[in-house]
Amino acid sequence: MARSGCIWSAGSMEKFEPQLAVDRAPAIWIGRNDGTGEQHLRWHQQVNRQPAGTPNGRRPAALLGFASDAGVLRNEGRVGAAQGPQALRAALGSLAIHEPRPLVDAGDIEVLGDELESGQERLAQSVSALLAGEMLPVVLGGGHETAYGSFTGLFKHFRDEPETRLGILNLDAHFDLRSAPRRTSGTPFLDIARDLQAEGRDFNYAVVGISKPNNTPVLFERARSLGVRYLLDEQCTAGQLPAVLGFVEDFLAGIDKLYLTIDLDVLPASVAPGVSAPAGFGVPLEVIHGLCATLAGSGKLALIDVVELNPGLDIDGRTARTAARLVNTLLGV
């Protein structure tokens, strides 16, 4: 069912068109309109409307939807994350642009029914193609099964550069290191660890926001055996922000390229009610936002995804609005 997608209707990106494996064309963006001058621009007026190039040396950012519930369903969670990409775009649409950069919408990969593995292959192919086009991919999930396809695309791109140290920073209440017969939203980082081990590559994985009551002793032991670094949610209060930033900066010092994955269930349920598994404690928004601001200026961001947005459960669109703010901060617009 895969079909090629086009990022811009014209320009140098056309040569990447056959490498993209999207199933749905880019969305029609709408939002508040205060005028057409640069001082009035909002996201919906910027996406897909700037020609290829890197003004002020800034890479284009490419949004890519991964409309999947399959991994959450396999993990016995609350489905609905397949609608996440469209809800997140809608929340981004009216945000104001202060520092213009090229923003493009590459469309959506759609997982129908239980066809998760083929969807992850298309996601990996598309992420790799966007990286080859010197873009910053921003994947909009989807459940956290998104992570396996996202990272696989990053690894494909850097596979012939073994000296490049890849790192994964997961903002999440869960390790997602479960072992299961098939991939689920709870297995992606164990699946990635096994793939890297088979390739003789290091597994550099850190998690901020782990909920001790929501991860079994088996998962903590697995994290220890894999050398995973982590902070518990209780170690990530607003007053502990300097320590959290120090933890992340230490992690960044040991890698060259960062894959940042944000599971919105890391946030308190009052801020992010529209997720597959709402947090009973959670990491305050000001801490997560502070991390995103730091990472945006690190120079090491190679790939971003935001997952587990479940619009059908999202009271007043709180979760989508919060996710949009984080994406906006990460892209520095």
UniProtKB/TrEMBL annotation:
<dbReference type="InterPro" id="IPR005923">
    <property type="entry name" value="HutG"/>
</dbReference>
<dbReference type="Pfam" id="PF00491">
    <property type="entry name" value="Arginase"/>
</dbReference>
<comment type="pathway">
    <text>Amino-acid degradation; L-histidine degradation into L-glutamate; L-glutamate from N-formimidoyl-L-glutamate (hydrolase route): step 1/1.</text>
</comment>
<feature type="binding site">
    <location>
        <position position="172"/>
    </location>
    <ligand>
        <name>Mn(2+) 1</name>
    </ligand>
</feature>
<feature type="binding site">
    <location>
        <position position="176"/>
    </location>
    <ligand>
        <name>Mn(2+) 1</name>
    </ligand>
</feature>
<protein>
    <recommendedName>
        <fullName>Formimidoylglutamase</fullName>
        <ecNumber>3.5.3.8</ecNumber>
    </recommendedName>
</protein>
<feature type="binding site">
    <location>
        <position position="263"/>
    </location>
    <ligand>
        <name>Mn(2+) 2</name>
    </ligand>
</feature>
<feature type="binding site">
    <location>
        <position position="265"/>
    </location>
    <ligand>
        <name>Mn(2+) 2</name>
    </ligand>
</feature>
<keyword id="KW-0369">Histidine metabolism</keyword>
<comment type="function">
    <text>Catalyzes the conversion of N-formimidoyl-L-glutamate to L-glutamate and formamide.</text>
</comment>
<feature type="binding site">
    <location>
        <position position="263"/>
    </location>
    <ligand>
        <name>Mn(2+) 1</name>
    </ligand>
</feature>
<keyword id="KW-0378">Hydrolase</keyword>
<dbReference type="InterPro" id="IPR020855">
    <property type="entry name" value="Ureohydrolase_Mn_BS"/>
</dbReference>
<dbReference type="InterPro" id="IPR006035">
    <property type="entry name" value="Ureohydrolase"/>
</dbReference>
<dbReference type="InterPro" id="IPR023696">
    <property type="entry name" value="Ureohydrolase_dom_sf"/>
</dbReference>
<feature type="binding site">
    <location>
        <position position="172"/>
    </location>
    <ligand>
        <name>Mn(2+) 2</name>
    </ligand>
</feature>
<feature type="binding site">
    <location>
        <position position="174"/>
    </location>
    <ligand>
        <name>Mn(2+) 2</name>
    </ligand>
</feature>
<keyword id="KW-0464">Manganese</keyword>
<comment type="similarity">
    <text>Belongs to the arginase family.</text>
</comment>
<feature type="binding site">
    <location>
        <position position="144"/>
    </location>
    <ligand>
        <name>Mn(2+) 1</name>
    </ligand>
</feature>
<keyword id="KW-0479">Metal-binding</keyword>
